[in-house]
């Protein structure tokens, strides 16, 4: 399944500046060094424990200040690049996400009538690995009714009032379209009526499958794969209010939020994300904290219809409902207009190589 390669085989590695990549990896390391060494942090395909990362992490955290030279020497000393290798592995897909800024209120009103819900008390998550060994790392989400675990409410049911009186509202915002994209991004900043800001982030999900709205609109014939950007989707939904709920309710997935202590985006690893260097991945395939050499393109910030080469060492620090597959990633671009523009238009083919701890390589490859 894995094929080892040399650093010289990574396109663009020789001329890469890895300073920011190492600083981003250090944020993951601060989490690793606090964890139980025996804790499993790998996947079904990459068997890793915290102790596999800790030696490299202790070495990484000693590098201060970080220089370009030290960063490259560090990664080449502690890691070995490998790639997924089988007949089914082709070019991957890489998209972008950002930290949205919305307006909201703690009080429901005519303007602010769309709720961001906290996680409901009746939402139950069950680890199936506790019951069946072959279902390790598999979870099921639902609610109990008449002593039976059943699927949780769909987006349509929630939009029709299924959670009224059953879940606390964290804050009210003014657009179901903005709520949908906040769910996709995973976190955001809400500006309240008094001018103060609160940070909200992903807390839980209803366990139902994610359906991309872009795919719905493409199937509907109103967009193509080439022009289905975030900006185009928002524009269509805004201009066709009668179609709004019919379209977005086809995505049964629904996200619940919590108030964050700081105004930064936190990834699934529990660390702050670094714009341009943190990558959301499919944790079924890629372990959290893994450095990944990414070779793709990204939209030009001045002309998003044009693409620029992107060869960069990313760190896997987040996940997302739409991120599924061996070679699939979502680049975090931060907040602001530039980040929104790049993230909204990014949908590019590419490839990545995993940098795994050298001592662990024999477990996955025949060298």
From TrEMBL:
CDD domains (UniProt xref): mlta_B, mltA_like_LT_A
InterPro entries with a match to the protein in the record: 3D_dom (IPR010611), MltA (IPR026044), MltA_B (IPR005300), RlpA-like_sf (IPR036908)
Keywords, sorted A to Z: Cell wall biogenesis/degradation, Lyase
CC per GO annotation: outer membrane
Top-rank EC class of the record's enzyme: lyase
Domain Lytic transglycosylase MltA: 101-258
Catalytic activity entry: Exolytic cleavage of the (1->4)-beta-glycosidic linkage between N-acetylmuramic acid (MurNAc) and N-acetylglucosamine (GlcNAc) residues in peptidoglycan, from either the reducing or the non-reducing ends of the peptidoglycan chains, with concomitant formation of a 1,6-anhydrobond in the MurNAc residue
EC assignment: 4.2.2.n1
SUPFAM superfamilies attached to this UniProt entry: Barwin-like endoglucanases
Molecular function GO labels: hydrolase activity, hydrolyzing O-glycosyl compounds; peptidoglycan lytic transglycosylase activity
Example GO biological process: cell wall organization
Pfam families documented for this protein: 3D, MltA
Record function comment: Murein-degrading enzyme. May play a role in recycling of muropeptides during cell elongation and/or cell division.
Protein name as it appears in the record: Membrane-bound lytic murein transglycosylase A
């Amino acid at each position: 399944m894995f094929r080892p390669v040399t650093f010289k085989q990574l396109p663009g590695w020789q001329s890469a500046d890895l300073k920011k990549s190492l600083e981003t990896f250090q944020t993951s390391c601060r989490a690793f060094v606090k964890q139980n060494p025996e804790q499993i942090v790998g996947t079904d395909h990459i068997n890793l424990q915290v102790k596999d990362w800790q030696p490299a992490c202790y070495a990484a955290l000693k590098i201060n200040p970080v220089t370009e030279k030290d960063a490259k020497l560090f990664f080449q000393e502690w890691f070995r690049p490998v790639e997924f290798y089988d007949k089914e592995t082709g070019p991957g897909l890489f998209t972008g996400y950002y930290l949205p800024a919305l307006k909201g209120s703690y009080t429901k009103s005519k303007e602010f009538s769309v709720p961001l819900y906290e996680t409901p008390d009746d939402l139950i998550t069950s680890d199936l690995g506790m019951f069946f060994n072959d279902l390790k790392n598999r979870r099921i989400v639902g609610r109990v009714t008449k002593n039976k675990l059943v699927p949780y409410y769909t987006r349509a049911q929630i939009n029709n009032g299924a959670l009224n009186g059953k879940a606390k509202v964290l804050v009210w915002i003014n657009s179901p379209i903005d709520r949908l994209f906040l769910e996709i991004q995973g976190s955001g900043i809400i500006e309240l009526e008094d001018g103060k800001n609160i940070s909200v982030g992903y807390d839980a999900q209803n366990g139902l499958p994610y359906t991309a709205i872009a795919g719905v609109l493409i199937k509907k014939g109103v967009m193509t794969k080439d022009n289905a950007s975030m900006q185009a989707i928002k524009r269509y939904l805004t201009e066709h209010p009668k179609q709004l709920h019919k379209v977005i309710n086809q995505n049964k997935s629904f996200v619940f939020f919590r108030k964050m202590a700081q105004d930064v985006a936190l990834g699934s690893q529990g660390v702050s994300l670094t714009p341009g260097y943190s990558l959301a991945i499919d944790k079924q395939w890629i372990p959290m904290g893994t450095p990944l050499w990414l070779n793709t393109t990204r939209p030009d910030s001045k002309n998003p219809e044009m693409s620029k080469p992107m060869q960069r060492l990313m760190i896997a620090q987040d996940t997302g409902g739409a991120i599924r597959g061996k070679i699939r990633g979502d680049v975090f671009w931060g907040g602001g207009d530039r980040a929104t523009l790049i993230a909204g238009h990014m949908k590019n083919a590419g490839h990545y190589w995993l940098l795994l701890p050298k001592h662990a390589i024999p477990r996955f490859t025949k060298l």
